[in-house]
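Note to self: the last two entries modelled the partners one at a time, which told us nothing about the interface. This time every component goes in together.
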Amino acid sequence: MRRSKAFIPTTKEAPSDASLPSHQFLVRGGFINQQGAGLYNYMPLGKIVLEKIRSIVKEELDSSGCIEVQLSFVTPMALWERSGRADAMGKEMLRIQDRHQNPFVLSPTNEEAMVELVKNRVNSYKDLPLNLYQINTKFRDEARPRYGLLRGREFLMKDGYSFHASKEDMVREFDLMEQTYKNIFTRLGLDFRVVLADSGAIGGSGSKEFHVLADSGEDTIIVCDRCDYGANIETIDSINEDDFNEFTYEELQTKNIEEKCSCGGTLSFKKGIEVGHIFQLGTRYSKELEANFNDENGKPKPFEMATFGIGVSRLIASVIEQNHDEHGCIWTKSTAPYMVNVMVSNIKDEEQSSLGEELYSKLLDAKVETIIDDRKERFGFKMKDAELIGFPYTVIIGKELVNGLVQIYDRKTKEKLSVSKDEVFEKIMELI
RNA sequence: CGGGGUGUAGCUCAGUAUGGUUAGAGUACCUGGUUUGGGACCAGGGGGCCGAAGGUUCGAGUCCUUUCACCCCGACCA
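The predicted structure of the combined assembly is written out below.
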């Protein structure tokens, strides 16, 4: 992409209503813009990042045997009445009417729709297990949308639903998804923890959340520095959060969580952004909606189910909450909108310009996602812009070229590495 | 949904207590020139139904009523 032809409206100032770093930088960097409360447009850079995350999610799910579908976003109210959630979901569910005054809702989640899809199409234990997912828009009419992409009303979420002939098999899939989710967040380059979540009314140990560690996280989680143990403090009731921060590990032992962390490691509190949630549903929906399969004896049984969610658009903001500095975004390699920014300091300089063009095409030929900053702007302006957007590497072709040198600027370390113009391509290929 | 706040140029905001020429600044944008290693400088220029609707008044950005939108603190949530 040529920066001179791109649509990347960056700004020096943040809108006054953006408080979090991810919100400010994503808006200032020209990734997104706000359309209304909790409603966002994705501009080209935002769209690229969104698609990158989406495809990583898809690749990992597919390789674990999940199958992608797409459900209608607008669903008849009757679907929700059958499961009893028309009332239970309350005002969070946005209700609309069509031209015949028939009631519909903008789907906030899709348990009912997915069960209806499978019901009477999957009739035998021989067809199980089955794990279907979609990556689609959701709408939840939040009482108070905030924090930019972290809590929008309209958002992109991956929701998956698995169907099993037995509880054991459902648990097997649950564990497989836990591993798959770990693979996804690792590939995204995120520092995250898996924690026990509040299982709510359904009970059991069947709910785990995936949290990206970030100071701005809305949840407080307890993690062990030695073993895998982690828990959302929501799981430990009768203690309020403020008190909790005062406790030492020994004190925590008296709070009934010690048996879950027998390794002797130190427990500490972290702020986390919930980006994934996996849940053992059992037969709650299949019973309600009379979705059965025939077992080995030809007897109808309700599906054992589990459900798996990932907040895809929220992940964009999470990457930045975890990776930014005072200058702007610092994308991980797998999420960066462009890996390399070829910055020609002075485009009027023939030599700089032609080396930039040459490097640009070479990188494109090598399938490196590259953008060339060929705008008629000053050095400082382009550097600030590159830092705000957060390309992992910017090749600075500028005044050192007279000595045959260019610089590779590493956004994360802020180091500038001087390399010969003849070796810059190889060096870049080595770094990425 | 409770409590608080803000709506004036694309963006950040003055101006509103006490009504009174043609509504301002910075930034962004356009033109020309200078400049080219950290959002540079000079000169000129375009851009506003002062959130919306009513009202008071000779006169409303400013006062009154209604309404809408957005933000912040809570309660609720991927």
